[in-house]
Structure formats: structure tokens, C-alpha cells
Amino acid sequence: MQYSLITSKASRKASDASLIGTAIDYRIRYYFAITHFNKFVAYNSVPGLFILSKSLDVYAGAMQYFVLLHKFLNQERITKRKLSTHIETVLNYHCLILAKLEQLSRAGPIIFDASREFYLLFKRLIQNAPKKGLEQLFYHFDKGLIKEMNKLSYLFYDKFKSLILSTNKKVLNPTFGLSGAVGGADADLIIGNTLIELKST
């Protein structure tokens, strides 16, 4: 069975659409549960950030980011409810950061050089924290992306509230044996007996 959510305005660039597609996957999974950051594909980018920057500050900044993110997620009780616009916006900035890190992790050196400004933000984070905190990382993203993320997130909640609040067992980021042999065949979540794959086009 397939469900569709339609927004009135598409992303302006293909790269934006790809980023939002990955970011909204993170956001939707947060409606159901909080996954520890070491389970993220985004987390796998941290060693690459260190290797390419040759800087312990970048590595430390990235690690600090994930710790502060996990603290934020738990403090704001983000699961199973519709968030205020402010908290939703902050969370979606984080989802865009995770999406960008996931892209870096998957593409490796191919796009690392083009993303130098982004990973140097982690150096600034460790140098300036806690005075400026995480919000300095948010300035990297266009506000138009955030508006679209907020809209998609609220649309999902409004349409699938009963699924979000369901007491059925939920498994996030399920993996299956030998899926790598066919180029990857994992999914986004399983709720009860239903396997769910999220796609954004």
C-alpha cells in the first residue's frame, strides 16, 4: 500500500530535494523513537571529517555535536507528539545536518572537498562552545529548506497521527541479513507487521 503527501512548492534545486529527502527520513523516524546517534549513517562520517581536515578540533567538534544533539532530543521529548513551531524548526535544522553528514558518509572524498565549509563548522563549534552553541551550525542552511521541512513534518503527523501513537512494536532502521549482497535492501521502520520505506520525490 502506498500513501502520498503533496506540498505546494518543490525544492528549488535537485541537491536541495535530495537533502530534504534524506532529512525528512530522520525527522519522521523521530516521531516514533529516538535512535542513539552511533546507529546513524551520518555518524560514520566523523572519521572522514577528521582524516580530511587533519584536525582534532573538527573530530572533537563533530563528537560534541552528536552528544549535544542527543541531549536536546531527550530534553524536548520529541517523540509521539506535534511540536511547537520553534522546537520543530530546531529539530529540522538538526535533521538537515544529519542528512548532510549522511551524504558525506556515503559519497566520501567525492564531495568532501566541496563541503569544506560545512565540516569546518565543527571546528568552530568546539572553539566557540558553549558561548554560541549549536545554532552556529544552522546558518549553513537556507531558511526555505526549513519551511519545507516543517510543512512536510506537520503533514505527516496530521495524516498518520494514529500510526505515530500506535502501541504496536516499532523497529527503526531495520536491517536484514545479506542485504548488502543486493546493494542494500533495508528499510526505514517496521510498525507491528508492516514494513515502511519512506521516499521523497
Describe this structure in words.
- The structure is a single chain.
- The protein is mostly helical and 201 residues long.
- The chain has one domain.
- It has 8 helices and 3 strands; from the N terminus they run H-H-H-H-H-H-H-H-E-E-E.
- A 3-stranded antiparallel beta sheet has the order 1-2-3, with no helix packed on it.
- A hairpin with a 2-residue loop joins strand 2 and strand 3.
- Helix 4 packs across helix 8.
- The longest helix is centred in the middle third of the chain and has 23 residues.
- It is globular, with a radius of gyration of 17 Å.
- The two termini are 17 Å apart.
- The mean pLDDT is 77.
What would the keywords be for this entry?
201 residues; mainly alpha; 3-stranded antiparallel sheet; 3 strands; 56% helix; 4% strand
* Secondary structure: helix percent: 55-70%
The major pleated sheet works out as: 3 strands, antiparallel
Shape: globular
Mean pLDDT metric: 77
Domains, number: 1
Total beta strand runs:
3
Specify the structural class: mainly alpha
Residue ranges: pLDDT <50 for 5 or more in a row? Answer: none
Strand percentage lies at under 5%
> What separation lies between the terminal Cα atoms?
17 Å
Count of separate DSSP helical elements: 8
Instruction: Tell me the Rg in angstroms.
Output: 17 Å
Order of helices and strands: HHHHHHHHEEE
Kindly report the spatial arrangement of strands forming the biggest sheet.
1-2-3
